[in-house]
Amino acid sequence: MAEFQKPRGTRDFAPEEMARRRFVEANMRRTAELFGFGEVMTPTFESTELFVARSGEGIIDELYAFEDKGSRKISLRPELTASVMRFYVNEMQNLPKPVKIFYFGNCFRYERPQAGRYREFWQFGAELIGAPSIESDAEVIALALATLKNLGLKDVVVRIGHLSILNKFIRDLKISDNAEKEARRLIDKRNFEDLRSMLDGANANDEAIARLIELVSLDGDEAIRRAKEEAGNNEGFGYLANLLERLRAYGFDNCQLDFGVARGLDYYTGMVFEIDAPSLGAEKQVCGGGAYTLADLFGGQEVNSTGYAFGFDRIMLALEKSGVTVPSQNLSVYILPIGDEAKITAIQILSELRNAGISADMDLMGRNMSKAMKYANSIGVTKTILIGDNELAENSVTVRDMRSGVQEKYPISDILRAFFKNIP
Ligand code: HAM
User: Fold this and answer.
1) Is the Cβ atom of 258 under 6 angstroms away from ligand 1?
2) Which of 32, 127, 206, 301 could form a disulfide with 102 if both were Cys (CB 3.0 to 4.6 A apart)?
3) The architecture CATH gives domain 15-321
4) Which of 267, 263, 297, 300 is nearest to 49 (CA)?
5) Model pTM?
6) Shortest CA distance to 107 belongs to which of 279, 301, 314?
7) Res 160: pLDDT
8) Residue-wise pLDDT tens digits, 224-249
9) Which residues of the chain are in CATH 3.30.930.10 domains?
């Protein structure tokens, strides 16, 4: 038995899986760039204080936190928003606004691993800093939705809420800070039964309990109607109605209002949103974000900021569940030389193809024809080139299209024509 195993909650990625991940990552990157966002990279570890500053010492339980050899308190990042805002305060405050940033990186959380929940996972996220809030919020949600659209992931539910609404209804309960925290947790889990009994136990006002549960249970058109009706009473409601109108102008009319979106992190201040892929079951949330303040906490000037992060690993799972094809390899051509003399010709053709930008490989295992065909099929190349004695005698090769099974002969000197039909 192998002596070493990977640490709990981590994964190894084989070449095929990496090809799929890189394909999806490149697609996401393209969309972010289309929206005018630029990529940043920040350290994998930060001072623990950066994460504790907003959330309190309690968060340390969820972190990979340690002391380095210089007795500095260090943590592997559990997410990138705090790092990006530290970077912004350190070096980007004087840039012309808005600052539009995206990132792709691994994150570490000391969680109980299960399907879709890992201790090392990847986030693809974006932050928009310094624009008026409704513009930022609309642009950021639109980027998230365009990213999913460009990936072909359709089966998603987008839920948008506003913390000023939820906070007002929670304050009306007149309960302790701890009970408020617990209420948020239960609302976040949509566990309204436990919420009701917890609030009863905390001696919350009966009428306020009923109002809260009615609010967070609203969905579909009902929620939108409520937002419009209440626009005059609570600015959060009016804000959300305006936001939906903007998202429709972006071409997205699939967003729902959900006044119960509470978010797990402590820095959100206004609009909050989540995207679920219902096919994933328990760990179905593929994206979370919202408007937040962190710059001032990190010693910078207060500035509007909105962002989100996709759980990249969950996006990969959701694409697979929805049957979206993601290429698992980039190899186009497999060359099979039969006999020693053919090997030299095979190497020459291999190099010519690679120089022309066509990914190609040749048999290194001495396979016979039938085994080679099986292998070529299994790795999914589109064409196989066969070079045997007959071909060599004619200075030609046989090119087989693996999908149609059609074989054609090409002169060796004109082999690229098999790939680029329009060569003059
Ligand atoms: P978050 O909701 O904590 O938000 O994480 C974002 C996404 O990361 C989640 O929706 C989920 O898909 C994925 N995720 C979280 N934990 C795990 C895990 N253990 N295994 C696999 N995937 C996971 C944030 O991190 C915020 N920084 C988002 C943000 C950016 N807000 C404003 N800007």
Assistant:
1) no
2) 32
3) 2-Layer Sandwich (3.30)
4) 297
5) 0.92
6) 314
7) 97
8) 999 889 888 888 999 999 999 999 99
9) 15-321
